[in-house]
Model the fold of this input.
Amino acid sequence: MEQVKTFLQLTFHNNTIARYFSVLLVFLIAVLVIKIVDRFVLRRLEAKAKATKSILDDLIIIFFRKSIPMFYIVVLYASIFALTLSDSMKVLCLTSLKVIVVLYVVYILLKVIDLVAEQYIRKEDISVTARSVKGISKFAKFIVYVFGFLLLLNNLNINISTLLTGLGIGGIAVALAAQTVLGDLFSYFTIVLDKPFEEGDFIAFSDFSGTVDRIGLKSTRVKSLSGEEIIVSNADLIGTSVRNYRRMTQRRVVFRIGVVYETPLVLLKEIPIIIKSIIDEIENATFDRAPFISFGDFSLNFEVVYYVSDRDYLKYVNIQNEFNLKIIEEFGKRGISFAYPTQVIYMGKNNGK
Done:
């Protein structure tokens, strides 16, 4: 027994053997507690988190799940610092712990970015959005890497103030030189996140219209109806009003028909009925109204309003074509004449002069 006590009192690197055993025992107990929490607590919380639609609980579970190795490292370093260490050993252990913490923070941030991007893509379920979100996540990861690198240099006692000053001056010069490029880049993020339009949408802006072919980091390419490709910068596109026709549930069509003043009253009353019957026979078209709206300079005007229950522009054109042919046919049967610019001069005698 005396020999055991003597052995435990032996000193090795400024610490007794008994001190080493007590630290080791505390370390093993802490590891056991972490394993119990991981197996019985985190797994149950993870199962409950998967059953919810919120992403916040998933992020919390991932944080603790990915932190298990870090907890082991913290317990290990806490056990080491419980011993009597030399100054050089303390500096070495403290520096290595800082490096590990920085790497861990970078790792967690990268995992959070991946999870948020994955959840957003799964929610939208659009391949175009998936490509855009992946581009943004890569940019966010680049920022995290730069942040982690600078933090790592700082924890290694490397003076980064000169580097940051140089980067600041150079950054201002680059920002001024690339102001337009940065404006287009941030406009790209606005398009991807706010989604005023997506690839495949038919849009109209300024004096142009067409189908969005590709949304790039600097410019958006639009294929017009006449076939040419329109390239417009993202900043210019965001700065103007954009009409997105793809998101229409139905298209409202409004136009006027003019007939001559000589048209009898009976036929004038019949014109709205004729127009309604024609539109009712056309597929995907819904009649709204066709009232006698005004007296023109050379015509009696009827305003026709109907809806097309399909957002396809080609179908709208075909429906309008079918209506125009039908209205000419029906008006011809009844002898109703369309008006066109005319001028009538009435000449009479004035006391024989």
Summary: The mean pLDDT is 78. Residues 2-176 form one domain.
